[in-house]
Amino acid sequence: MEPIITITTTSDDREALEKIGRHLLTKRLIACVQIVGPIKSLYWWKGAVEETSEWLAIMKSRKSLYVQVEAEVRSLHSYEVPEITAVELSNVLPDYDKWVRTETGSG
After folding, report:
1. How many helices (H) and strands (E) does the chain have?
2. C-alpha to C-alpha distances, 102 to 82, 96, 98, nearest whole angstrom
3. Which residue has better confidence, 106 or 85?
4. How high is the mean pLDDT of the chain?
């Protein structure tokens, strides 16, 4: 069976993540998005250590939809190089698994 995944991205703009999340929900590419924050991010960027307050979006989807989700997030994201990562979930409550599949068009 196709794996369920979580996809994460970050932004310094909570409303921008809400816009991205609503867009992906409307297209049925994700079953839900959770926006957490603010969080403190420290990272290397163009040779210097940067420090930013950001928000974290955690989205649930199916592995086969990742490429489409990535493309949509990239097209809407304001960052030059946004974080867009996915992790396969190995243990998922069966009812939750079914819900994600149903809400992303593979019920």
Report:
1. 3, 4
2. 28, 10, 6
3. 85
4. 97
pLDDT score for 18? 98
For residue 82, give Cα distances in angstroms to 14, 57, 77, 97: 14, 12, 7, 27
Whether residue 58 contacts residue 34, with contact meaning beta carbons closer than 8 Å, is answered with yes
- Between CA 32 and CA 24 the distance in angstroms is 9
Task: Give me the helices (H) in 10-107, please.
Answer: 14-26, 66-76, 94-103
How crowded is the C-beta side of 40, counted as CA atoms within 13 Å? Answer: 3
Domains detected in the chain: 4-103 (3.30.70.120)
